[in-house]
Write a structure and sequence with these properties.
18% of the residues lie in helices and 27% in strands. It has 298 residues and is of the alpha+beta class.
């Protein structure tokens, strides 16, 4: 199994990083001790601090096979080099050691077979960026390595525009805001991120769409793209995403399957030229349900 470290996980301990990828911490530490984990073809200690671009090879006791599954995909855009899919809430982007079926990658393998980039390793064919399981919306897929590199450079240089819709708990105090708070791996809970001193620069632009009953419907633009960025920023500011149980927004009056958060807008340059592609989708079922249920009547 191959994994590649991106900038969001730089300076994370090797065992903490792998534990965050759905393995138990104790199992990972045993695998490292047994020499079943290589970083850049070398055995490292569990305390090794990762660097961007590190290649991690993990040998599991059982062979990891990703099944191609015939699952419905909502294609929003497609050309010879890429595809943009509207991922539903509840679907993992790619398989993990614990969940190998019913992910977006399983569906992509059925539809496209080997016609997907392999830069991000065998668990993530075609995957340029991820959406959390319970976040719905637009996600870009590369059909070949050249397209992957072309689009990944846009992500790295921040020339791709990504916008989200969310419902936040409480009455957000400003109509417009720029949140600039550093994010890194949570020091005690490696499956979470947190605002921490020395974390990566993380910027989110916020604009209120509608004020609801004890909640706020907002538009969010990612200037940077850190793991869980919106969820962490909103939680830190005491206005967590509605029903986000991981970051303190759970148990909302209107029930949904976890966070009410949708990636609804993408603007990027089409491979391999200068044509601008602009995509926008309608609010998903969770957004509609919660905004209807919490609309102020006075």
């Amino acid at each position: 199994m191959l994994l590649f470290v991106d900038e969001n996980d730089e300076n994370t301990r090797l065992d903490a990083y792998l534990a965050s990828e759905e393995f138990s911490r104790s199992k990972i530490q045993k695998l490292i001790k047994d020499g079943a984990v290589l970083v850049n073809n070398t055995v490292k200690k569990a305390s090794y601090l990762l660097r961007e671009g590190d290649k991690i090879e993990l040998t599991l006791p059982e062979a990891l096979k990703i099944l191609a599954q015939d699952m419905a995909l909502e294609i929003v855009y497609e050309d010879d080099n890429m595809v943009v899919v509207n991922k539903p809430s509840g679907m993992l982007t790619h398989p993990t050691a614990l969940e190998r079926e019913n992910t977006l990658v399983n569906a992509l393998l059925h539809k496209y077979g080997a016609n997907l980039s392999d830069i991000n390793g065998e668990l993530r064919p075609g995957i340029l960026h991820r959406l959390d399981r319970n976040t719905s919306g637009l996600i870009m897929i590369a059909k070949n390595n050249a397209a992957h590199e072309f689009l990944a450079e846009q992500i790295k240089s921040r020339t791709i525009t990504k916008k989200y819709r969310a419902v936040l708990k409480g009455n957000y105090p400003k109509d417009e805001d720029e949140i600039n708070l550093p994010i890194g791996r949570h020091p005690r809970q490696p499956h979470k991120m947190a605002v921490i001193e020395g974390g990566k620069e993380s910027r989110t632009l916020l604009k209120v769409i509608q004020r609801l009953k004890n909640a706020t419907y907002v538009d969010l633009t990612l200037v940077t793209g850190r793991t869980h960025q919106i969820r962490v920023h909103m939680s830190h500011l005491k206005h967590p995403v509605y029903n986000d149980s991981l970051y303190g927004g759970g148990n909302g009056k209107i029930k949904t399957n976890e966070q009410v958060l949708q990636s609804y807008y993408l603007r990027f340059t089409k491979p391999f030229g200068d044509e601008i592609i602009e995509l926008e989708i309608e609010p998903d079922e969770k957004i509609q349900k919660v905004t209807r249920g919490l609309t102020c009547t006075t």
